[in-house]
């Protein structure tokens, strides 16, 4: 009974996470579209947060002493190509994470109905590994180009690479489990 309860909780949590990612994709796309229509809205000088205690906070990249520096790194100064590339990159990351959660939910549902060692689970773990590899590739390079400046960065996402290896190892473990199950079924 505990196994079923924990699986039900995990399946419910994965459904909630998938819903959150769908909302994030919709919200991120809405911000992208709004940024196309009115770039000056996202200039940090316009964000002034008022609090109930009379204080107000202004969002800036650096202090007021570096006003020239603040003007360079604002969303309204981001080049259009860089904006589109960044949007597509983050959209791809969100979609890949959503697909990983979806495949993991399929695995949990098959375990719940006691079809743990099936070819579908092996394929699901392989797909998770492929999606995580895409995630690692998308998150390894960062580039932003502004009107007067820009920056680039390359990083190796060790956590994502480790998860890719774990997913492919789990696929092989489940594949061996299928062979052992078939062998057991033949002996009985």
Provide key terms for this protein:
two-stranded antiparallel ribbon, elongated, mainly alpha
Strand order, largest beta sheet:
1-2
SSE pattern: HEEHHHEEH
Net shape: elongated
Oligomerization category of the chains in this entry: single chain
Structural class: mainly alpha
Distance between the termini: 27 Å
In terms of DSSP E residues, the strand content is 5-15%
Largest sheet features: 2 strands, antiparallel
Helix content: 55-70%
Task: Tell me the layout of helices and strands.
Blueprint: H1 2-37, E1 48-50, E2 56-58, H2 67-72, H3 80-112, H4 119-139, E3 141-145, E4 150-154, H5 158-187
Antiparallel strand pairs: 1-2, 3-4
Helix pairs in contact: 1-3, 3-4, 4-5
Explained architecture:
The relative contact order is 0.10. A hairpin with a 4-residue loop joins strand 3 and strand 4. A two-stranded antiparallel sheet has the order 1-2. Helix content is 67%, strand content 9%. The chain is mostly helical and 188 residues long. The chain contains 5 helices and 4 strands, in the order αββαααββα. It folds into 2 domains: 2-37 and 79-187; 40-77, no CATH class.
Provide a compact summary of the structure.
The protein has 188 residues and is mostly helical. It folds into two domains: 2-37 and 79-187; 40-77, no CATH class.
